[in-house]
Design goal:
7-stranded antiparallel beta sheet
Length: 172
């Protein structure tokens, strides 16, 4: 039911809520995987934030932030009953997508029917995970440190995307 097509170097889609951050001095990336099922942004958000790979980050977040990263909080965020999840607050929601902010970082999740990008109905959904770091290409020590961590960030993002995809639950 899954075809894993990672697209790490493709331009960020113009329709994306992350698109405004896809230019210097900011850093932005995204990864995409296609699944042969119809998945909503609500399902994708919950699956992502409750996935096995994200549990380590949740453990750390729960030690630092007063707003806990729990399964219930992930469901509330996914279902639109809340615009906050631990360190993140909602910056914007759009059809099939969610943009969260935490300081100078942005996290973008989207679930788009594959026909949105191919022009033909296929019954598959493209699941996106993207991020941005504001001012990452400015001349500063902090920006240099951020740039130095991009390779591990990309690997971690891909692991999170795969784990979230594996965590999806829908009627079979």
């Amino acid at each position: 039911w899954v075809s894993t097509i990672m697209e790490p170097w493709q331009p960020i889609p113009e329709w994306s809520l992350l698109a405004p951050y896809a230019q210097q001095p900011h850093y932005a990336d995204h990864f995409c995987v296609s699944v042969s099922a119809e998945v909503t942004i609500e399902q994708w958000t919950v699956a992502f934030f409750t996935s096995r790979a994200f549990r380590v980050e949740r453990f750390l977040l729960n030690r630092v932030f007063p707003d806990k990263a729990t399964d219930d909080a992930a469901r509330a965020l996914g279902e639109g009953r809340s615009d906050a999840f631990s360190a993140w607050t909602g910056e914007r929601r759009g059809p099939g997508q969610l943009l969260l902010k935490s300081g100078i970082t942005r996290t973008w999740l989207a679930a788009a029917p594959q026909e949105a990008s191919t022009g033909s109905a296929s019954g598959t959904t493209a699941l996106y995970l993207g991020s941005a770091v504001l001012g990452a290409f400015e001349r500063s020590i902090g920006a240099w440190v951020l740039r130095a961590t991009l390779t591990p960030h990309r690997a971690y993002s891909q692991a999170l995307l795969r784990s979230g995809m594996k965590n999806l639950r829908w009627p079979r």
